[in-house]
Amino acid sequence: MSWNHNVHYHDFALGEVPPRCQWALDVGCGRGALTRKLAPLSDEVIGIDSDHGCLDQARTTHGGTNLTFLEGDVLTESLPFQNFDFIVAVATLHHLPLRRALERFRDLLRPGGVLVIVGLYKIATPIDYAYSATAMPISMAIRFLRGEEAVGAPLQDPRETLATIRRESAVLLPGSVLRRRLFFRYSLVWRRLIRPLSQASSGQHAKGLGAKEKSARPAVCSVYCRQGVQCAAVP
Questions:
Q1: Distance between CA 21 and CA 23 in Å, rounded?
Q2: Which domain does 115 fall in, by range?
């Protein structure tokens, strides 16, 4: 397979998938390359993206009984609360409002689940420039040897510095591990602690949904919900 800066980190992300993973979510799945790689590692995999063209190609290229591709915005799509064992976002977070996206990922991840982000940051410090200078000849060499695969999705320059991302993730995802990486990227891994769900927290499933989403939900949870029983979101 040809290479690009995002494909380079697929194996890293896949290595963080927890054992006995039932539900995985690939945020900003694009043409579905990483989504397809998740299929053998999870019972069900959802790839979500707002780009219609990319999703058409993903559905055509990566068919599978346990793969679902959704066209929509992860911040507003009706996805079940604390449902996913694994959430991954590669080169996606800088397209979204940072705080809202981190809060959303946190709310969708079940206790014991793993969140992996491989993101881009705004180059602003001498260390940033040094890493960039180091990465350039390495990137050129790998492209020469393996060829380069087009990203195939809309591009956007990152707005937040690494310091800002580190500060926000420390507050919203306590215990998360953020590391600077080559190719203008960083990785963030967060494992949500397992805690008994109180009656109040279980009610957040309904609280997290707007009135329109509540009314649209069937009496039994959708296929995306692990509960498969009367949902707390249903009046």
A1: 6
A2: 7-122+156-195
Do 74 and 15 reside in the same domain of the chain?
yes
- What torsion, rounded to 10 degrees, do the Cα atoms 2, 149, 145, 134 define? -120
Backbone φ and ψ of 77, nearest 5°: -60, 145
- C-alpha pair distances (Å), 213 with each of 80, 167, 180, 201, 233: 11, 32, 38, 19, 9
65: Cβ–Cβ under 8 A, 6 or more apart, which residues? none
pLDDT tens digits for range 60-107: 888 778 999 999 999 999 999 999 999 999 999 999 999 999 999 999
Q: At what angle do helices 162-172 and 98-108 cross, to 10 degrees?
A: 40
| 115 located within any domain | yes
User: In terms of domains, do 72 and 12 share one?
Assistant: yes
Report which of 227, 233, 231 is spatially closest to residue 212, judged by C-alpha positions.
233
Rounded to 5 degrees, φ, ψ at 13 are -65, -45
What is the pTM for the complete model shown?
Answer: 0.77
In a domain, 95, yes or no: yes
Alpha-carbon distance of 60 to 75, in angstroms, equals: 25
- State the pairing for strand pair 109-120/185-191: antiparallel
Tell me how far apart the alpha carbons of residues 206 and 204 are, in angstroms, rounded to a whole number. 5
Segment 127-142, tens digit of pLDDT? 888 877 776 766 666 5
